[in-house]
Protein 1
Amino acid sequence: MEILDISTSAGNGVATVRARVQPRGAAESFELWYNFEGLDKPLDGVNEAVAAALVVPCMAEGEPLSMPGRVSPIFLANVAKAQRLLTGWYDDLHPVRVRCPAHDGVARHRPQGVICCFSAGVDSWYSLLKHERRVTHLLFVRGFDIGLDNDVLWRTARSNAEAVATQLGKRLVTCETNLRDVADKSRGQWGKTFTGDFWGERLHGAAIASVALMLRRMIGELILPATHTYTQLLPWGTSPLLDPLWSDGYVKITHDGCEKDRVAKVRSLAASDIALATLRVCYVNTPEINCGRCEKCLRTVMTLKLCRALERAKTFPRPVPLAELRGMIIPSHLRHHYVALREEARRIGDMEMLATTEILLGERRSAVQASARLRRAMRGTVFGQVLRTVKQAWRTATVSPINAHRYGGPGGATDSDWKARRSSVADHKG
Ligand SMILES: [Zn+2]
């Protein structure tokens, strides 16, 4: 892959970086772009930033990365280490050379600024509050979890981030970028298309670093909030092992928060009204801050409930019935979260949530599951036969017009009758 040129420009409060990228064997080049707002110093370190964004996709393709300008020797040495780690983790990534005309100098001193990657989620709120005294800037990115096509969510989420920055006395830096669109191999813009979670497992830490490295005149450290605890660590796109290796020597990269699990982090942020008023955990790209229906939203609702903070969490307005929580299907790789919830429910004596987590973990049957099991057990017995006869008689006697076509009982309309009625209604709508 050859980076043909990298340009920067600024105007109307927006600083822009554009890189023209030519993948090997591709008929056409593409553009990688970033638009920043809220800067108090000009951008710098763009060569390292573009290299950080594209070296992992190059590893997936097995092609070297050629840069048009110099990069820091610390960055080159770190990227070599990052590649060794990633190739040890993933068989489908291969070490590649990063070619550049000459090495840049070495940082003499780092600015005092500290930027915290901030999505308003549980992990970033925990790290922000933990390091509140030394954090000077918040970094909020569009194009990673908030899609470039989702204006409604971006406006609301950005407005919330501005309110947080104002209340805590921090400077908000926003970046809109198509980095994920062009570098996430699962999206198949060029070369081989990856079928798994390329972004989550391999790329997103390097992508966040790519954005932050361009801020090296403003900041000397990026705090990157952890997803996993030390006991949950596994090969993943951000990790305490991997993240520091995207540093260029100017910006230190700190993977933060592995010491606490998600329940402990929610308990910590539950003391902050503004955290509860802006908490955004949902990964579904909808116009809402939190959809309130996906697994992560429902899991967070359970955690907030255990932390006695659900009523104050304004971004989860929908009451979630217990039956809905108990009907969730838990992906196996998220099981540890529910084990932590079960232990918290047991610790505080919340028997309702204890039962819910035990049902979700398959350690206890729900009322619906128990009833189904009883019906299956009675199927071959005389009592079961009597029960079925009574049930059938009741259905026949009480069948309603709306259900008649389903049961097909005496006096009920047939399917064709109901189809005729529907078409008749449809005719009158016009
Ligand atoms: Zn959701």
Protein 2
Amino acid sequence: MRQHIDETRLPRDAVLKPASTMAAAQASPATTPRLLVSLATYNEVENLRELVLAIRRHVPYAEIIVIDDASPDGTAEVAEALMRELGGIHLIRRSGKLGLGTAIVCAMKYAVEHAYDYYLNMDADGSHPPRFMPALVAGMDRVDVMIGSRYVAGGGVEGEFGFKRKFMSTGINVYARTMLGLKTRDNSGSFRCYRVSKLAKIDFAWIRSKGYAFQEEILFWCRFVGCTFDETPILFENRWGGRSKLNAGEAVKALQVMLGLGIDRALDRLPKTTAAPR
Ligand SMILES: Nc1nc2c(ncn2[C@@H]2O[C@H](COP(=O)(O)OP(=O)(O)OP(=O)(O)O)[C@@H](O)[C@H]2O)c(=O)[nH]1
Ligand SMILES: [Mg+2]
């Protein structure tokens, strides 16, 4: 029988694992990469279960980590139930809403510490259809970072994507390319796969953004440590249920972070590393 764990007595970022945690990994063939998929969640109770089951259908060998920021809607309890049922699922419960960027950093650190081959992040709201995951992983034979992209041939948005949202998304991508010198097209989405040995070269203390600018910023640091990139088309969907957490304040903070990085890049004030191309 599963022991009751009093979360309030665990340190922040405590990782809860079920006894059967390695079940999914053991079921995969020897040549299959060790893949960690991360789902940052804040109030995704309507989406999490269906999403995890779909991920397991498309990449059965993946382990999944949920980073939940004390969602009031009980998302973490759904994650715990999935842990017991499926195995190969991990849960990090944080003390409050600490931001999407810090949640992803938390999962990236976990991937580095546990020496996974690849780390794949996606939104937990159904916007990133799991059917595209095999293409992201397949691309890792060629490059260090595969981006699930709305802005390459074959990619796009399914359903309603209002003018305001499209304008903001295009604007932020042009801005990111200008400020950060990125060459890729979709720099603001989070549906991506990374080579963990390359993530290990990044000092996570370099990362300035706690929120949504993280998506552009991590590409900047990946480039800084010498990563190669490619993009594979995805069709972005509107979230299945629940509500968006993106707001104007987050967008303004994102612009500020990129401006600061752009200035430091221009003035050669970035950290010194041997791996850096420019
Ligand atoms: N752990 C954690 N997850 C977060 C936080 N903010 C957002 N998320 C999760 O990050 C993912 C993206 O958030 P969304 O609110 O869907 O934002 P978005 O996809 O940029 O915006 P929409 O397209 O409007 O949905 C979702 O899985 C959220 O639950 C946070 O502070 N902490
Ligand atoms: Mg979303």
